[in-house]
Amino acid sequence: MKTERMGVESATALLRRFEPVIRSTTGDKFYPMDAEPYVQSCSLWVQRPGEEARCIVPGGELSLDRLAQQPMDEAGAVHFLKFTDEADLHPDARGKSLFLRHAMNRKESRRAFRAGRGRLARVGYFSRFVDALYSIALLARGRVPGESAAAASVAYERIMAEHAHYRYHGRVVRQDGWIVLQYWLFYPFNDWRSGFFGANDHEADWEKIFVYLSESEGGEVSPEWVAYAAHNYTGDDLRRRWDDPEVEKVGEHPVIYVGAGSHASYYAPGEYLTELPLPLPRPLARVTHAVRSFWKTRLGQYVGEGEKDAGSGYFSIPFVDYARGDGLSVGEGGDRAWDEPRLVTDPPPDWVSGYRGLWGLYARDPFEGEDAPAGPMYNRDKSINRAWYDPVGWAGLDKVPPPAETLEAILEQQADIISRCDALRAEIDAKSRQLKKLGAELAAMRDRSHLDAPYEAGTRRVAALSGEVDRLRGRLATDEAVSQSLEEYADRLRAGERDPARAHISRAHRPGSEDELRVSRVAEAWAAISVSLMLISFVGIAMFEREHLISMLVFSIAFFAFVEAGFRGRLVNLVSSANIGLAVVATLILIYEFFWQLVVAAVLIVCLYVLWDNLREIRR
Amino acid sequence: MEPGRTSYRAVRAIGVLLILEVIGLVLLGGYEFLQVRWVGINLESPQHETVEVAVFALFIPSAILTLLAALSFLFLQRRGWLLAAIAQGLSLAVSLWLYSLFQPGYVYPIMAYCVLMILYLNSQDVRMVFRPREGASHEN
């Protein structure tokens, strides 16, 4: 990979020309800000293995320059910033006011933001059960204290009162023929969990939007692709072509719908059901896959649609990301304009490259969801972030040549294939001749008893050579077909035709449809209470109906499953699955009861079939 | 919801198979019923065989559902699939329950027929015929 630098002025001009418009959701409290005032309000801490966290630089004494110095570094040490003051969280006078502020904030948030229907109603029992466990686990896991969001909100408002600003951090790099405009958005706090029923809270949030430009021979740049970072989307699924109708634009500025609290970036407004998948253990996944494969291919049974990967994981924890776009917008034509960006030049400034710690509280969460992220250049484990060193590969664009180079790449590839075909033809000719000679030799040796041994060896050689020639011919045929399609592809490009804009996407971000969001209040209430109700009913049965424990449990599960399936519109699936289960049990009973009769019947059927088949042949 | 011409055969075949199932249930029930001497039966402590035959009545709801499903199929209504599937599941559940209690002989043919019907109803070809229309978000 090769990245090149660009002059400060031209870089800034490019960044400003294509800077995004962000549209947030009503109720969101934090917006992209400059990293400097944030760092100035933080204290710097270090957590060394087996020790209490220690404050290295107290709040108010830190600066971007000082951040790069990482004293007390050693193996296993984690440096982190603290944005919210612990004193604010204790019940002294200041804490009291913060507590009131926190309560007020929650009230304000509730007024401003109303959660969409049916986070839980959109997923099944197991997911809801795991969701409950996940929430309970938060009590045991490290997490950001509940009042932190309020404290962060106060601190953010203090910063904004001193100097109101909306700023991004811009970086421009050239890589593999692309000019990559990197917009790094820094939010002081992620309050997805506490504010919007999401998965986590953490101090500091670095989000990124990349715009990929191509450059003509005359030096004119034009936007070709954009990539917005969003949760666990990676590679091709992240990026959209500039002319994709999903990419909304204001002039030359792409529009981003920001997830409330999570700050994930989306192309379209809506409510996104983000599911954290829980994969099955590998051996179990293999068995499941084998059974499904047998069920579908051998027995010709229906396994549903869109369930190709179902073998790897069936369960997930649901979260909704509200990216409604009905809140404050920043950028071209928005409620607020961007301030002059903070340019991140190459080589990067020390605060970017020198500080490898976390940009907020280190909550020691084993799932890392509650730990603050590292800076734009690093991952939490201090390794370098791919989006930093390979922004083109990060969005899966490393296999896509810029438009000006596409035809050249096609013709080069075609020339390579043609020369490979020539070499293959020569090899096939030589080996075919050899094969014919060997064939003649074999024919000469046939039925000569004293040449039995060399005849056998020759037969093996002929078979091997024949196989090899066959493989070579197959490769040649494929290469010729590929060369032909490259030729046609080049013709289409010359005629100005383009690939479909969305052909590269395998799993697109998709907001919940009207149908999915139209969950009735009853269904939602059912989703909220059903897991608890089911567990209570199990306890009740175990306590009061021990005599009929099994039958009552079966009846209870069937009842809950039936109601659930009715609400979720999956009655067909439920009936089908229940039937299959019953059929398997019945089959096992029949085999157990009538094993020998079934064997005899099977043999008789085979005999009759063979008889019928032979008689049919005679009749012809 | 009119099925296409190619799916006529599968739909009608299921209808006929369901009718055959109802006829079979009626014949089997009738035969079992005739095996018992109902005159002078002691209702307070009936014989084991009598109870076995009496509980055959549990198949009546599933037989009615099967008949309705069969008529739905014969009149080419695709919604009959769910009805037929529920009827088969119910028959099989009753059979398994009776098997766990008395192991009466008549449950085996019913089980075998239901298993085959379930496999047929769930086969790829049949399910594709009854697949919801494009754009429909829910299956039922």
What amount of the residues of chain B lies in strands? Answer: under 5%
Specify the biggest β-sheet of chain B: none
Most residues in contact, chain pair and counts: A-B, 28 and 30 residues
Q: How many DSSP-defined strands of chain A?
A: 17
Give the end-to-end Cα distance of chain B, rounded to a whole number of Å. 14 Å
Shape of chain B: elongated
Number of domains of chain B: 1
Proportion of residues in extended strands of chain A? 15-25%
Radius of gyration of chain B: 18 Å
Report on the architecture of this protein.
The complex is a heterodimer of chains A (620) and B (140). Chain A is an alpha+beta fold and 620 residues long. Chain A folds into 3 domains: 3-399, no CATH class; 403-494; 514-597, no CATH class. Chain A is 46% helix and 15% strand. Chain A has helices at 8-17, 35-40, 64-67, 93-112, 125-140, 148-162, 192-196, 282-298, 350-353, 386-389, 391-394, 403-445, 452-494, 514-517, 521-544, 549-568, 571-593, 595-619; strands spanning 3-4, 21-23, 43-47, 54-57, 78-82, 169-175, 178-190, 202-215, 221-228, 239-241, 249-250, 253-258, 265-266, 270-278, 315-323, 329-330, 342-343. In chain A, strands 1, 6, 7, 8, 9, 10 and 17 form a 7-stranded mixed beta sheet that branches. In chain A, strands 2, 11, 12, 13 and 16 form a 5-stranded mixed beta sheet that branches. In chain A, helix 12 (403-445) packs antiparallel against helix 13 and helix 15 (521-544) runs antiparallel to helix 16. Chain A is globular, with a radius of gyration of 33 Å. Chain B is mostly helical and 140 residues long. Chain B has one domain (5-36, 48-129). Chain B is 66% helix and 0% strand. Chain B has helices at residues 8-34, 48-54, 59-74, 80-101, 107-121, 124-129. In chain B, helix 3 packs antiparallel against helix 4 (80-101) and helix 4 (80-101) packs antiparallel against helix 5. The radius of gyration of chain B is 18 Å and the shape is elongated. The A-B interface holds A 296, 299-302, 513, 515-516, 566, 569-573, 575-576, 578-580, 582-583, 585-587, 589-590, 593-594 and B 81-82, 85-86, 88-89, 92-93, 95-96, 99, 108, 111-112, 114-115, 118-119, 121-128, 137-140.
